[in-house]
Amino acid sequence: MSEPLRLFRTAGGPVAEQGGAFVRVGGGWDELVNRPALAARLRAAVARGPSAPRLEEPALAPAEGQEIWGAGVTYDRSRAARLEESGKAGGASFYDRVYEAERPELFFKCAGWRARGPGQPVRIRRDARWSVPEPELALVANARGEIVGWTIGDDLSARDIEAENPLYLPQAKIWDGACALGPAILVRDEPLPRDTPIGLAVARSGAAVFEGGTTLARMRRAPEQLVAYLFRETSFPAGCVLLTGTGIVPPNDFALRAGDQIEIRVPAIGTLRNAVE
Questions:
Q1: What are the residue ranges of helices labelled H in 122-213?
Q2: Please, what is the Cα angle at 138 between 187 and 9, to 5 degrees?
Q3: pLDDT value, residue 33
Q4: pLDDT at residue 57, as a whole number
Q5: Beta strands of the chain (E only): which ranges?
Q6: Which residues in the chain come in under a pLDDT of 50?
Q7: Structural domain that includes position 90
Q8: 83 and 29 part of one domain
């Protein structure tokens, strides 16, 4: 099996990496992500070199002209959490039904330029009391609706705002610093294995306050199905990033605080680290 092939976005341009060799790739980010046979092109670039032993510039969020969307209630654990938080508002049945329905829940999260990259701070809303990280595998699709790679996403959510009324979902999902992506795109020609693990750790004052994990096998919907619905009546000239939902939900007495350190780990992609402002 070949070494994982990753694509980083930096201020100086895209950088491909395989087997510890980092090679700068010519062209702009949006153009590169939408080229045919992306994986083959990046492998050829790495083979030609020249290479460096490390990434020489900080990695940015792997999105530029791409819109970032989210899919909800794709794991049973997420459905259970939504039922708990929305029962008093009378919205619980909506989440139960969408989990079983053919049509998925899809929502706009942010423009690519709003996403925070690895090491950049994320934020919690000042008018929310119960904000949580939502660690997710995010797929990267080109303008033709083809999945070209995967990255890590943090779809921060204000659960108390959504619990108050499901119609407040945009305010519970969208604000400055509510989305982080990175550290890179894992570029693959084939789907990720179903046993791919996702891990979350939150530290506060140097001590762990929450840890959890799941696998892609626990996701009810196929990534290809989510992309097909997203592209059904909407075009994405630069492609898009789609957060595929979370299967890790902290207990109801947990809420993020300023200063918390969030780490989301997916083997082959890496670790996305962000501090909370």
A1: 159-164, 169-173
A2: 55
A3: 97
A4: 96
A5: 5-10, 13-18, 21-24, 67-72, 105-111, 131-132, 135-141, 147-155, 157-158, 179-187, 197-204, 207-215, 240-243, 261-266, 270-275
A6: none
A7: 67-275
A8: no
